[in-house]
Design a protein that fits this description.
single chain, 176 residues, alpha/beta, eight-stranded mixed β-sheet, two-stranded antiparallel ribbon, 10 strands, 30% strand
Length: 176
């Protein structure tokens, strides 16, 4: 079982504004149609794991469900509101990251996409993330939801690659 992160962050390390807004992220017209490896990454993933706040944010996006064809697991101590159109594709679980990983592995998951600030932080703290892909967006937010939180111990990273793009984005990939 492998668990990976693919996420955008401001240069000062925030993944959303304090209220969760993502209005600072570039739109498709800002990135010249490039997906920066996202589709290839998603093609390698069979299960998306996210917290309730991230799930509710994604539900509010316009357009199609962005995780169509993938199993989505929402981590929450309360059952998640799952629209009828997503029944059978979205489920919820609760528990510590190790238990979630064990349960998903027993159910046949092989590559997890871990998404959302607190969820990423919890899986990092538990040392369950294997691959980290962070795309830095050229903006300073000053405050917001941080990508990383306090850690009990250092998390050594092995640099795999970094790419700089004409629009100012810088994407780095690490193995953990």
């Amino acid at each position: 079982m492998k668990a990976s992160v693919f996420i955008a962050a401001s240069v000062d390390g925030f993944i959303a504004r304090p209220n969760g807004d993502l209005d600072w992220l570039p739109t498709d017209k800002d990135v010249d149609g490039g997906d920066f490896g996202y589709q290839a990454f998603m093609d390698s993933v069979d299960t998306v794991v996210m917290g309730r706040f991230t799930y509710e944010k994604v539900l509010g996006f316009e357009g199609d469900w962005p995780f169509d064809g993938k199993r989505v697991v929402v981590l929450s101590t309360r059952s998640a509101n799952i629209p009828a159109r997503l029944a059978g594709q979205v489920s919820w679980m609760e528990g510590p990251p190790h238990r979630i990983l064990e349960r998903l592995a027993a159910e046949g998951a092989r590559h997890l996409y871990i998404d959302g600030g607190r969820t990423i932080q919890a899986f990092l703290q538990a040392r369950l993330i294997h691959r980290l892909i962070v795309t830095r967006i050229p903006v300073l937010l000053g405050s917001g939801i941080p990508l990383f939180g306090l850690l009990e111990n250092d998390v050594p990273l092995r640099h795999l690659r970094t790419a700089a793009y004409a629009n100012g984005m810088v994407q780095s990939e690490y193995a953990i």
